[in-house]
Amino acid sequence: MNIRPTEVYPTIPSPCFVLEENLLLNNLRLLQRVQQEAGIEIICALKGFSFYHEFPLVRQYLAGATASSLHEARLAYEEMQVKCHVYSPAYLEKEFEELASYTSHLSFNSLNQYQQYYQRAAQQGISCGIRINPEYAEVETDMYNPCVPGSRLGIRRSDIGETLPEGIEGLHSHTLCENDSFVLERTLAVIDEKFGDLLPKIKWLNLGGGHLITREDYQVDHLISVLTRLKAKYPNLSIILEPGSAVGWQTGFLKSTVLDIVHSAGIDVAILDVSFAAHMPDTLEMPYKPRIRFADSEPVAGKPRYRFGGMTCLAGDYYGDYSFDEPLQIGDEIILEDMIHYTMVKTTTFNGVNLPSIGKLDRNQNFVLFKSFGYKSFKDRL
To answer: What is the pLDDT of residues 115-159, one digit of tens each?
Structure first.
């Protein structure tokens, strides 16, 4: 039976980011299993998943949250009711006192930052650490690789010397990006080689994000074995993982609508009421090709073929090509899958394009609208 994407969700406004609560629950239960069986802590990275309407649910399963700024830390404190693990390349003097009030663990990016802020953090009872650069990463896209030559992120072993600065209780390494447990295993071997003499002298090791534990082909049992061996070798260490993508991975979609179909040099371009550049920037930055419901992600001979264009005037605001069983029509609903992580946290109002609404399908498949946007949202950013 041929399928054409007419309106599947008539009660959901277009455009709209929609979290599917049952899918989020599946991810949280899996992450909780890793925590329990490996004896570690998993905390939610707000830079990838800041869907704060679901933070009370996240808190039931994960150990807390990690933030990269004052605003993220405050959001976690207010909506998840936890103090955060915090890391930033540099802290702002005017914000530090308030940031400290929302912080349980804080990592410094440089020895300069340590010297400037350590005493004030320690007086607040914050456990302090340093971000390290093991100079090893298996990240294919340089934009996401923190170990490229000249990286500003983290301290190399040659910069530390024989001993850690006074009061440092943890090390923080973040060199993964949507990687698996085998990449983590190889990374840990490098960390052990370069920093192993320091590990018995600290209380915690934060292995950062980029652990795509909830991806279907991820070998969870191998991850648990890797972490279990690490804890056996260094029983003094609390081990922390802080994934963002893994929390929101495949937990919802972006609903959009075909506004027009333009025929150009033999290519049919469907113009949507969303923007790849403004609403899904990772599709252009990473880049990756988003999946579309009811569509073949690669053109199929004999089937109607379409390129999808966004609403902005940016020439490169498009993605394609896809095939459908039946020709598209103006007004058809287009569902872009897996649009909950690294989307809402990166949206812009470039060209004055309106932001998508935000809602969820609850556990009973009822739609709940959390918020919509308009002119004020655009103006407030200018």
So the answer is: 999 999 999 999 999 999 999 999 988 999 999 999 999 999 999
Record the tokens describing residue 68, joined without a space. 């990269």
Q: Which residues contact 312 (CB under 8 A, 6 or more apart)?
A: 275, 277, 278, 350, 351, 353
CA torsion through residues 127, 110, 193, 140, sign: positive
Residue pointed to by tokens 């893994």? 246
How far is CA 93 from each of CA 100, 309, 317, rounded to the nearest angstrom? 11, 43, 38
pTM of model > 0.85: yes
CA separation for the pair 312, 96 (Å, rounded): 38
State the Cα–Cα distance between residues 2 and 157, nearest whole angstrom.
59
Which DSSP letter does residue 357 get? E
- What is the C-alpha to C-alpha distance for residues 332 and 328, in angstroms, rounded to an integer? 7
The C-alpha angle with vertex 51 and arms to 48 and 54, in degrees rounded to 5, equals 130
